[in-house]
Amino acid sequence: MKHNPQYIDIEIDKLTNSIENVITGDSFQTDISLIDTNDLKQITKKNGWLFNWKNEYKQPDRDVYKLTISGNPEIIQGLISITEREDHVYMHLIESAPFNLGRNKVYIGVPGNLVAFACRISFHRGFDGYVSFTSKTQLVEHYQKTLGAINVGGHLMVINTDAALKLIDKYFKN
Amino acid sequence: MGLIREPLDVDFFFDPKPLTKKEQQMISDFIKTDKVKRKLKKTTQKGIYTQHAI
């Protein structure tokens, strides 16, 4: 077991109306949980995923979480890889499922949901909601607008306590 | 309760390159400063209440 048992209490969190079908506008409740070896079989490049999640899973310092629709745990809607640093949570990778990418995506709200979850973990671990990540050049402005992230130099982005609280308020019941 | 709706033509990706020590330090420095600013802001907000003589 590579994950520290002390984190088990936050393996699954109930979210509310957190992803929305683009065509019908219907909202769906979601669950977030750690991935396991069974999940690795479906999150491959062959199945359209862009990043090497198997490699991410193997990293001892990282936790990889999946987002699924409640009652439909087999279909992964998106993934996030995070690390606990000295004073915050760092997000290494985030990816929506292949069917949630581009203009024809089935659901919107997947990445926002996962980032809000990372902020929540940051609070749980005593980091006051601080989360950081490295943005792709063309997305810096987008993250500032949608997540309230602050560019702290280069492509480094930080979500601070206030922005984290807003994100969590959007998604979590409690 | 709400939802962060990413535009249909935008997908969230992060740059997976490992952080240098300098970059890690930049983040920690920002967090330290931001925490201080937040504390000061809280203190200042408390200070704006004025007592009125009856």
Question: Unreliable stretches of chain A, pLDDT < 50, 5 or more residues?
Answer: 1-14
Major interchain interface with per-chain residue totals: A-B, 58 and 28 residues
Oligomer: heterodimer
- Spatially, the strands of the biggest sheet of chain A line up as 1-4-5-6-7-9-11-10
Helix content of chain A: 25-40%
Mean pLDDT of chain B: 82
Q: Helix and strand succession of chain B?
A: H
Radius of gyration of chain A: 15 Å
How is the biggest beta sheet of chain B arranged?
none
Mean of the pLDDT scores of chain A? 89
Structural class of chain A: alpha+beta
* Terminal CA distance of chain A: 29 Å
User: Topology as H/E string of chain A?
Assistant: EEEEHHEEEEHEHEEH
**Helix-strand category of chain B:** mainly alpha
- Whole-angstrom Rg of chain B: 20 Å
- Continuous helix count of chain B: 1
Q: Indicate the overall shape of chain A.
A: globular
Tally of strands of chain A: 11
β-strand percent of chain B reads under 5%
As a percent range, the share of helical residues of chain B equals 40-55%
Strand content of chain A: 25-35%
Briefly characterize the structure.
The complex is a heterodimer of chains A (174) and B (54). By secondary structure, chain A is of the alpha+beta class.
